[in-house]
Write a sequence for this structure.
């Protein structure tokens, strides 16, 4: 118990001890049950609930983590925090829609009952058939038919348990109902109930937005969380799961190896090595491709024969039919194949391959299967699994399968975990509910397992929960509901997301291959087609016939040949230009422009010729590379000197910022790249250091080679584009009909130019400028035409409605004008910019022809399944014109079809899976599913006559039959038939049934029928298929669509660092300056208010008050309810509190500062609405004021997101996902509209059935859109399809017109519904998932990321808020240096160590913005580039551009530094020259004085030095050495004061740096004075006097000074600032 390694301190030991205790409790309970002290089905059995948790010990043994415990703990903690945050986000939306549901609907207790219904005596016979909700208001909802009245069943005495637990009575029930609807299970029936009880618009708005936000956006954030977490830890668990190694192909003598490009290729092995005892001829035959193709063709024939099997009737003998004989023949053939391979390869060599093991298993199983007693038994699985061998036919399919299932340990571990979870939860549910009466779903373990598996697949999980809730009673219902919801939440959102994450991880490339893939992809993109399209290259097949002209007005003595028109046109253009230049008589500037225009054609041709012939690197590029090399050599040498001297060792240790770290990394990298090996090696380095330096050198030289390859790729792309232009120009010159619309209109004809102007004119605005004027007109016309089609129905047809024909004529006329203009401007087909140059142009012509034919034909009678009806269906494609007219919509189409290959491969895999199970189902269940509709009849001979069948009145009510009461019913004839919607009599019907099951709709009915009519053991069949289809098949679609979306966005090949960089750039675009004014300077009243309003406690208090006010909406505010008045009064109190909050913020921040924040504006708006509501509430006090008060509270509830960081991030994810998916949603709606129009034509008059009713039908386009939206969610779409397949004798046909029959269309319904469900549900909706996954990492990064975190951005926003005092979002360039000096933490710039970095950053801002104003995003972008390792984070082209910019900045900063140093040197020389001149002048004066004293001897006096000289000497003695105190920071463009000071020095006396002391005893010295004009750089002129005392020493000291300056300047040493340099 005590000690460091005690038993209780280990969590696993504590868990084991708890499980032992539970086992003993279960043992004691079992003894009591044997002794009959306790009933076996008593609630005491719940004590056994913890027992199934013992399987966790098996998980601990199976999943052996080889990582440290701390790392595993950190990973689980981080992922747990993310899942918890997303759960809170989901709870926020559940609470929001729960509140809205309570206030918008309330109770659903009004039903249509018979007029004689008495309170307290409501039975099944008193309800309408089917049970119908109604509205108590006469003008809204559904009104009961005659003989029925609308009554509240709760007032009639029904209990809550009898009425059901779904509804919006109060907040708890409302949240429960919202979660059910968000699971897309049963939501449409809730909407139909709301439509019958309340206004129609309210129901549509509530439920459609609920599905969109909760089911399609918010719940998919869970997938994003799991994918991000899984991507983060996959490297950590790589050792446990294994890497992607090569696999051996045993069907051939080849082996899979991964090539350098990241793909898989077959590499031949040593075929000459003998492996078996077979003769060489047999071994050669076995290894030949002909043998393998023969075997695969035989497998294909066997699959076709097995798929041709069908049910021939009960009297047919199935034992020895032709299919059995064919199976025996194929089995013998494949047995001989296996024996031949064993003979040739040897048994050991044969079983060494996993594929051969699979073939051997099939051989053994099929051999046993042909035994008569085992034929058509469970061994049939081995026969149908032969189809898996056909995967070897397609290398692409084989490669794809290996990518998905090759690393099987990950997917296998997840499958084992899922199965174990089902077993554990089934055992727990068995112990919880086995004793509940009237509940047979959990009486045995198989039933419990089927129920929990049903919840996992979400099919009918609401029915399982509702039955359990009704059985356990009203008291335990909330606990049971929470249990099922938590299990459903984990199973459907987390577990299924894990499968998607595993599949995405299998499709992910390794990090070391992504860079190479990027290079190869860039090369592939650059390798544009040099050849023109085939429609243009067809002119090359004809002989050249250039347009020739004849020169006239020449003497007739000579015969002048014809000359090319293009050649003469150049001279005509030049002559016209010369004439215009002479006529204008403009100054020289205009003449130069004329000369330039004359030479433009020649220069353009010369430029093209040079571009085609120049090498990869131009002279300019080589010169620039030499400059960069020279500069970096100096930098490298100075960096080495700094490292050897240890200049930073004496400074105190301080954590360096990311800016400093990245700056030194770049300096070191460039010094290694441009330096030689001999220069990098120093004496004191060890062997390890030298080895590391050598590896770094090799790595950087590889990077340099990579840069060269990128430049070559760019050059290759330019050359390809130019060659293509040259080819086009040659065709234009040599073929007169080239680029002539319809071969009639000339290239430069006035009419064509006019058409071009009309076609290409557009707005200059951003939004309106997306398309041209003509396209805008056609978009409006198309929308109006679609609106007109919305009014069409089988009862109001366009052929018989003149008002609808107007819109048809307008559309055809406008489209005719549009196409004529575009054809005249760009051509039809044989022109470079032809109308029909892609699929969009073909679709335009097709839509136009269909509309024109229909308008001209306008058939009055349209028979069903005729050509006229097909024409009407094709006419419904008209909304697809929007895809062609809007560029962003075309992008959506490209995103859909760009991943067609992978989607096609996934479809083949799923079809293969369906074919395997369909063939098995036909052989086992054919003819066995038919049964009499009377459940009391067993044999077919007794299935005749009539019987009474009960009618299902309602699924929601739970009424019990009274004694002697019968349910409503009617008499029907007995029929021996298959189930209505499916059967397995042939492969076609079986495939259709399995396709419906694959969508997880209707599989429960299939399971129940198979178990009831064939046997319980066969229930395994459908469970296995659903598990494979649901967990692997459907998640394959999600994974492939996400992977293709990432590939189209360019993020599929990005490494982790590059993806983080892209996310960072996207975050920086959205980031905005803080709209928070600074704190008042004084400590007055405003400052105190500011401190109060900004305190975290104050903000949390306000958030709690908002939640408290939202709780007031837990019940519906009804004017007739007495509880509404006190709730509204409490809301008034909360409103005044929020008014006080807004007032305090306005006082603290001032009105202008308060208005700067959008959040404050929103709070002010809601508070103002609250004040208006308070006034109206006390003035009117009616239902409308209560509704307004509830709306104000809901609006304020949204402010919770702004007060919680996690909710704000996740809400930003959803909002940005909506913004980015706008065109995808529009595209989905356009497809929905096309299918709705077609559904009205095909199924507008179909009779009502099981799911086609007054709510769901195709009688109009509006109702068809509602039905299709329901199908998108998968809500009983298969039942609607079968209702639309109804055929005679169950309907009334009519061969004259389709609108007079109530029959359906079998083939049309099959293609219509299946194609719609696949396109929308499997592809379009998964694009939304891809967008959410992309945006999740954008907003939900953590502090562990190496790039800028949210704390860094927040710190920068605060500093920007201090510098940008005017809150304009821009600052002058010279203020950037103050902003950089204020930054701290990871963005801090240390001026003692990183002065050069500081200069580079300042100059970058000045260079990019020309010294003007810079914005918030400009500075933030510069900091982001400086804070990352661009070699790892940037992509290739962006990397080259960034490095070129940084090289230029370094070069310009170095030039400025040299320029300023030279200026100071000139100042110093001038100062010394002035000193020398003053010395000579003083010596001359002294000599003249002595000479005059000698000639005229003065009187004897005592001479004292002058005061001026003493002062000069004192100044000289106190003057410090300027050479050692120079400031090394060069001036930048923002420091204008330095430039003004230099310019003003010309007319001012220079500063004296020192004076020479006069000798105590003057001696005669001879001096030669001469004036010399010196010019340095053509900028400064001065006169110098050669009067230096020691010129040699001065020259030496000057040289040493220059050397010292270079060393200090380039090694970035920290010196004191000089007076004449830049002061930062």
């Amino acid at each position: 118990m005590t000690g460091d390694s005690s038993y209780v301190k280990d969590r696993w030991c504590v868990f084991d001890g708890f499980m032992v205790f539970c086992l003993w409790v279960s043992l004691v309970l079992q003894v009591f049950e044997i002794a009959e002290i306790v009933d076996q089905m008593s609630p005491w059995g719940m004590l056994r609930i913890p027992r199934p948790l013992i399987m966790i010990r098996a998980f601990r043994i199976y999943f052996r983590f080889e990582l440290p415990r701390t790392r595993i703990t950190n990973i689980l903690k981080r992922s747990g925090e993310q899942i918890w945050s997303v759960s809170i986000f989901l709870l926020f939306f559940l609470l929001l829609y729960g509140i809205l549901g309570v206030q918008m609907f309330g109770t659903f207790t009004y039903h249509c009952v018979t007029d004689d219904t008495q309170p307290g005596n409501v039975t099944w016979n008193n309800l309408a058939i089917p049970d119908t909700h109604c509205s108590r208001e006469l003008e809204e909802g559904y009104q009961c038919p005659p003989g029925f009245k609308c009554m509240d069943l709760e007032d009639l005495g029904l209990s809550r348990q009898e009425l059901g637990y779904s509804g919006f009575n109060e907040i708890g029930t409302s949240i429960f109902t919202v979660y059910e609807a968000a699971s897309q299970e049963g939501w449409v029936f809730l909407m139909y109930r709301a439509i019958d009880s309340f206004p129609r618009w309210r129901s549509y708005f509530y439920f459609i937005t609920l599905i969109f936000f909760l089911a399609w956006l918010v719940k998919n954030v869970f997938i994003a969380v799991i994918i991000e977490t899984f991507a983060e830890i996959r490297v950590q668990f790589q050792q446990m799961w294994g890497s992607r190694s090569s696999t051996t192909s045993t069907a051939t003598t080849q082996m899979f190896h991964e090539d350098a490009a990241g793909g898989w290729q077959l590499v031949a092995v040593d075929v000459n090595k003998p492996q078996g005892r077979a003769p060489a001829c047999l071994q050669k035959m076995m290894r030949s491709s002909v043998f393998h193709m023969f075997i695969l063709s035989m497998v294909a024939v066997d699959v076709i024969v097995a798929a041709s099997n069908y049910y021939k009737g009960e009297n047919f003998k199935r034992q020895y039919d032709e299919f059995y004989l064919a199976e025996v023949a194929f089995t013998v053939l494949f047995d001989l194949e296996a024996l031949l391979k064993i003979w040739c390869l040897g048994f050991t060599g044969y079983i060494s391959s996993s594929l051969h093991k699979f073939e051997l298993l099939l051989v053994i199983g099929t051999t046993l299967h042909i035994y008569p007693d085992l034929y058509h038994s469970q061994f049939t699985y081995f026969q149908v699994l032969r189809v898996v061998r056909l995967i070897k036919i397609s290398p692409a399919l084989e490669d794809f399968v290996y990518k998905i299932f090759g690393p099987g340990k990950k997917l296998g571990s997840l499958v084992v975990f899922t199965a174990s979870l089902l077993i554990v939860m089934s055992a727990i549910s068995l112990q919880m509910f086995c004793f509940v009466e009237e509940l047979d779903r959990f009486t045995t373990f198989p039933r419990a397992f089927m129920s929990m598996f049903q919840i996992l697949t979400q099919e009918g999980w609401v029915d399982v929960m509702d039955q359990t809730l009704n059985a356990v009673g009203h008291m335990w219902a909330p606990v049971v509901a929470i249990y099922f919801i938590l299990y459903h939440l984990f199973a459907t959102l987390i577990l299924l997301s894990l499968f998607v994450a595993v599949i995405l991880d299998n499709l992910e490339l390794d990090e070391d291959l992504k860079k190479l893939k990027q290079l190869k992809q860039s090369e592939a993109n650059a390798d544009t087609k040099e050849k023109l399209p085939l429609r243009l290259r067809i002119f090359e097949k004809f002989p050249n016939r250039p347009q020739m002209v004849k020169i006239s007005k020449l003497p007739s003595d000579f015969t002048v040949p014809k000359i090319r028109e293009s050649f003469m046109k150049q001279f005509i253009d030049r002559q016209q230009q010369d004439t215009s230049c002479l006529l204008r008589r403009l100054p020289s500037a205009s003449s130069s422009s004329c000369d330039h225009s004359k030479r433009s054609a020649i220069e353009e041709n010369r430029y093209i010729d040079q571009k085609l012939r120049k090498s990869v690197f131009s002279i300019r590029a080589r010169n620039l590379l030499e400059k960069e090399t020279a500069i970096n050599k100096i930098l490298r040498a100075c960096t080495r000197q700094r490292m050897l001297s240890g200049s930073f060792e004496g400074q105190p240790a301080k954590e360096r910022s990311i800016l400093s770290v990245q700056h030194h990394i770049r300096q070191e990298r460039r010094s290694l790249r441009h330096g030689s090996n001999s220069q990098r090696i120093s004496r004191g380095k060890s062997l390890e250091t030298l080895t590391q330096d050598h590896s770094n050198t090799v790595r950087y030289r590889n990077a340099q080679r990579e840069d060269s390859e990128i430049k070559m790729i760019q050059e290759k792309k330019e050359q390809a584009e130019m060659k293509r232009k040259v080819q086009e120009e040659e065709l234009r010159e040599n073929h007169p009909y080239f680029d002539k619309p319809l071969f009639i209109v000339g290239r430069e004809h006035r009419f064509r130019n006019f058409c071009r102007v009309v076609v290409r004119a557009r707005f200059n605005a951003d939004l309106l400028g997306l398309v041209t004027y003509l396209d805008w007109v056609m978009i409006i016309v198309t929308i109006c035409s679609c609106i007109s089609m919305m009014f069409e129905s089988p009862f109001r047809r366009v052929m018989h409605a003149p008002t609808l024909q107007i819109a048809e004529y307008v559309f055809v006329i406008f489209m005719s004008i549009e196409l004529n203009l575009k054809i005249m401007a760009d051509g039809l087909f044989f022109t470079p910019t032809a109308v029909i140059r892609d699929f969009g142009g073909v679709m335009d012509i097709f839509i136009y022809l269909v509309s024109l034919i229909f308008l001209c034909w306008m058939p009055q009678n349209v028979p069903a399944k005729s050509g006229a009806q097909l024409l009407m269906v094709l006419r419904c494609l008209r909304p697809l014109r929007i895809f062609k007219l809007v560029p962003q919509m075309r992008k959506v189409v490209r995103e859909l079809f760009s991943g067609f290959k992978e989607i096609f491969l996934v479809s083949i895999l799923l079809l293969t899976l369906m074919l395997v199970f369909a063939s098995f189902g036909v052989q086992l269940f054919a003819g066995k599913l038919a049964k009499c509709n009377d459940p009391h009849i067993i044999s077919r001979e007794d299935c005749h006559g009539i019987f009474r069948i009960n009618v299902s009145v309602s699924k929601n009510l739970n009424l019990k039959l009274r004694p002697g009461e019968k349910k409503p019913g009617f008499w029907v004839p007995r029929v021996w038939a298959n189930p209505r919607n499916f059967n397995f009599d042939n492969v076609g019907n079986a495939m259709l049934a399995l396709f419906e099951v694959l969508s997880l709709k209707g599989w429960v009915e299939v399971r129940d029928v198979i178990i009831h009519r064939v046997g319980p053991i066969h229930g395994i069949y459908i469970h296995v298929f659903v598990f494979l289809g649901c967990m692997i098949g459907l998640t394959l679609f999600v994974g492939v669509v996400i992977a293709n979306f990432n590939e189209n966005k360019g993020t599929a090949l990005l490494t982790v660092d590059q993806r983080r960089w892209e996310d960072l750039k996207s975050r920086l675009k959205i980031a905005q300056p803080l709209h928070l004014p600074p704190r008042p300077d004084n400590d007055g009243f405003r400052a105190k208010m500011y401190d109060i309003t900004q305190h975290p406690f104050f903000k949390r208090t306000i958030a709690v008050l908002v939640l408290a006010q939202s709780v007031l909406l837990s019940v519906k505010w009804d004017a007739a309810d007495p509880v509404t008045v006190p709730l509204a009064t409490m809301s008034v109190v909360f409103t005044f509190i929020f008014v006080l909050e807004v007032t305090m913020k306005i006082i603290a921040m001032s009105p202008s500062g308060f208005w700067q924040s959008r959040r404050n504006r929103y709070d002010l708006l809601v508070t103002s609405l609250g004040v208006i509501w308070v006034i109206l509430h006390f003035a009117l006090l009616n239902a409308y004021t209560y509704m307004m008060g509830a709306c104000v509270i809901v609006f304020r509830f949204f402010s919770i997101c702004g007060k919680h960081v996690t909710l704000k991030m996740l809400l930003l994810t959803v909002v940005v996902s909506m913004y980015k998916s706008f065109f995808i949603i529009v595209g989905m709606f356009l497809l929905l509209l096309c299918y709705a129009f077609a559904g009205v034509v095909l199924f507008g008059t179909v009779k009502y059935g099981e799911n086609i009713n007054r709510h769901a039908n195709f009688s109009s386009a509006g109702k068809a859109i509602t039905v299709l939206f329901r199908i998108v969610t998968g809500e009983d779409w298969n039942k609607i399809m079968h209702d639309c397949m109804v055929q005679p004798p169950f309907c009334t046909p009519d061969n004259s017109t389709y609108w007079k029959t109530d029959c359906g269309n079998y083939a049309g319904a099959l293609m219509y519904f299946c194609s719609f469900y696949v396109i929308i549900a499997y592809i379009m909706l998964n694009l939304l998932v891809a967008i959410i996954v992309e945006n999740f990492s954008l907003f939900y990064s953590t502090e562990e990321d190496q790039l800028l975190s949210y704390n860094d951005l927040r710190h920068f926003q605060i500093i920007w808020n201090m510098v940008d005092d005017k809150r304009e979002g821009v600052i002058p360039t010279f203020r950037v240096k103050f902003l950089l000096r204020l930054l701290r933490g990871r963005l801090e710039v240390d001026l003692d160590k990183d002065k050069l970095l500081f200069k580079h950053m300042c100059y970058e801002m000045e260079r990019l913005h020309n010294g003007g104003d810079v914005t918030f995003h400009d500075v933030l972008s510069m900091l982001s580039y400086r804070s990352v390792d661009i070699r790892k984070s940037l992509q290739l082209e962006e990397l080259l551009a960034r490095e070129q910019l940084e090289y230029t900045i370094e070069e310009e900063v170095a030039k400025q530094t040299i320029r300023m140093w030279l200026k100071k040197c000139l100042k110093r020389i001038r100062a010394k020259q002035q000193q020398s001149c003053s010395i000579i002048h003083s010596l001359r004066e002294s000599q003249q004085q002595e000479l005059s004293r000698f000639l005229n001897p003065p009187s004897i006096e005592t001479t004292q030095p002058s005061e001026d000289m003493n002062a000069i000497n004192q100044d000289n003695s106190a003057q410090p050495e300027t050479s050692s105190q120079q400031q090394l920071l060069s001036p930048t463009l923002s420091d204008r004061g330095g430039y003004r000071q230099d310019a003003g020095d010309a007319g001012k006396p220079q500063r004296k740096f020192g004076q020479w002391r006069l000798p105590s005893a003057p001696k005669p010295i001879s001096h030669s004075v001469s004036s010399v004009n010196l010019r340095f750089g053509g900028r400064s002129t001065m006169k110098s006097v050669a009067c230096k005392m020691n010129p040699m020493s001065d020259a030496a000291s000057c040289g040493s000074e220059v050397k010292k300056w270079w060393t200090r300047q380039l090694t970035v040493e920290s010196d004191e600032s000089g007076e004449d340099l830049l002061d930062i």
In short: The chain has a mean pLDDT of 78. The first helix runs from residue 11 to 34.
